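residues and backbone:
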Amino acid sequence: MSTTAIDITDHEHGHNDPALLHHFHTREQQFDASKLGMWLFLATEILMFGGLFVGFGLTQIAYPEAFLQAHHHLDKSLGFLNTVVLLVSSFTMVMAVHSAKTNKQKALVINLLLTIGCACVFLVVKYFEYAHKFHEGLLPGKFFTYPEGLREQFHFFSFYFMMTGLHGIHILVGIGVLTWLTLKARRGAYSSAYYTQVDLVGLYWHLVDLVWIYLFPLLYLIS
C-alpha cells in the first residue's frame, strides 16, 4: 500500500522527469523559483560591493590628495584591457544561453569555453598588476612601503586590494561553475527543454562583469 502511495506521489510531482526536482510540479515553476532565488542572491552581492563603494567614497573625501596620487600608480591600459575582456565574456555568455535555448550543443560548449578563457585572461592581467604593486611596496595598511608621496596612499590601496581581490574571488568561482557547466553540456545535459543552470550562471557572470564596469572608473579614472 505504501509503495502504491509513493508511486502516485512521484507521478503527481513529475519525478519521472530527471531535470525536475521533487518539490516542483513543472519545469516552469522550477525555472521561476530558481531565477527568483538567483536574483535575491545577486541583491546580497550588490549590497556587499555597495558597502565597499560607499567606504571608498567616504575615505576619498577624507584623503583626496592621497587618493589622487595613488591612482596614478594603476596601469589604465591594463585596466581597460580587462574591461574589454570581461565585456567579450559577457557576450560569449549570452551566446551560451542562446545556444542552450536553441539546442546548439556544440555552440554552447564553445561559448562556455570562450567565457572561461576570457576569465583566465582577466586573472593573468590582474596577476601582473598585483606583481607590480608588491614590487613597489604599494600595499594596504602597515605593509605600505612606497617611499615617495603621501603616506595616506595606503588607504587607497587597502580598498583597491579589498575590492579587486573580492572581485577576483568571484571570477575564480565563476570559472569553477562554468567548467562544471561545460562538462555537463558536453554530456548533452542542456537543451531548449531545460537550460536553467546555464541561465542562472549567466546572470551571476553578468553581475561580475557589471561590478568591474564600476570598479574600473572608480579606481583607475578618479582624477
